[in-house]
Amino acid sequence: MLVSANLPAPVASRSYIFEARLLNLLRDTIIIAAKFFVPLWSIAATFMLPVYFLQDLISWQGSEVISWLVSPFIWVGNYFTSFVIAGEVSNVCLGGTASFWKAMYKTSIKGVGRLLGTDMLFFLGLASVMIIGYGISAVFSLGNVGIVGDFAVGAILLCLTGWLFLFTTQVVAIERIYWFSALKRSASIAWKSKRRSAAIFVLFLLCWLVTFIAIPSLISKLVAYVTGTDILADMISSIATATFLPVPIIFLTLAYYSLRRLSGELSVDVLADIKAYEMS
Amino acid sequence: MVELGEVKTIVVHVVSTLLATATISVFTWVVLQTRFNKNFRQAGQHLRIAEALQKEHQYAQAKEECFKTISLLNDEKRSVLLCQAHLRFGDISMSLKEWDEAVRHFIICKEIAKNVRHGTSEDVILLKLGRAYYAAGKPEDALRCLDDARRIEEAISNHPLLGETYRRLGEIETSLQHSEIAIGHYSRAVNCLEKIGDRWTLAATRVCLGVLNSKLSHNDQALNQFSTAREMYNELGHFPSVAMCDDRIARLKEARTSA
Hints:
The structure holds two protein chains of two kinds.
Chain A: H1 2-6, H2 22-35, H3 37-60, H4 64-69, H5 71-93, H6 100-106, H7 109-139, H8 146-164, H9 168-175, H10 179-192, H11 194-227, H12 230-244, H13 246-262, H14 268-276
Helix pairs in contact in A: 2-13, 3-5, 3-6, 3-12, 5-6, 5-7, 5-9, 5-13, 7-8, 7-9, 7-10, 10-11, 11-12, 11-13
Chain B: H1 4-36, H2 38-55, H3 59-72, H4 80-95, H5 99-115, H6 122-135, H7 139-154, H8 162-175, H9 179-196, H10 199-215, H11 219-236, H12 239-258
């Protein structure tokens, strides 16, 4: 963090909102993640590493129950990270800069609280959809397909809601719309370009699985194998998780701008407004 | 003798305490840094109310809220929030057609932005200031501001506001009777706006290009621009503009046949 404070903020020599092809979005995700690694990693590390390490240490001590108590902090930390990184990446997309100190200045507890509240609504909606789905399945005896069938119903409903509310963080951080309006807005963005947004959802899931689960677990296993120390492996895995955490958020923010542009929603007035009031 | 297990427990407790302290410190620091200062918090609230009122077109009340924000931040001459408040005040003044007031606020905003770290982008302020100057009847000052904005934006490939800057430059050059230069700016604006996909602004720019070309008797180019604009307005469902384009096209065709 101190290193990032002394370094000049990297400047985007281009804007990243004009890509339409999904592969180019992935390419730009990698470019932004590499070019703005220091500020984005600093943000992720500030919010996530202390809680991750705390959980690692507690679970190392063998207190599994207490380690679960840290989960809400991880959840809140995750929201802070997503909210702040989405805002910074938005600025990068429009040809601006990403900076740790700028992000900290902009961070508002209220903003993150609203994102948290909005996502709680999303989870409530998700739970209702699941209950209704399983209810219908049970009433019409569609559920006699065993555990695989139940899992499939759950996965389909999960994907459907996940796909529709994919851009909630971006809507809250960039458009400053909250609660039901944010969920409605995210669903409207996804619904306007169904195929493209579904493809983005699949890519996001892949991106998330690779960067959030596969790479950290692999690193953790490798370190545990080499050193034979679980705590060290867990901590290095936590560092890897924090390192790759911005990647899915960058991808979604790029996709959000791409979808808005392709559906003709990005006027010069809207862009000027986002750029002008980025700090409020 | 202290056993190894005990040492491990002590170390874990110490490190856990340190990490818990770090976690709490980070969150507390964010609270202190951002919203602890009462004036800052209140100013932020007033500014958000101003934004909401501006969106509802209640400009007089929005202006009052901006005024409250600025009064609360009077002691902080290098605040990003103060810079944003002046920018908002300028925007509201523009909506109220109080051009001189808008110019004043945009100038203050520009001065504050120079002294703050990570303030509002200079090109955005210059673009707004240029528009305010032009509306206030000072095209030379407007041209200077927009030219500065253009230089900043051209340094960034595909800058999203470059199209708008070119369009405003074209508007000013048209008013100064520099039609050829204006056509150049408008053409560059069309290229930029096509990438963004802002069809309304694009159609309006094509109409401006059509008007300028017809003024210079470049009838074919004018016809081409009006036809494209007509198609766009038709797709957007704005039929008064379609009728206007039809009228222009008819007149150009008439002029061509009579020639």
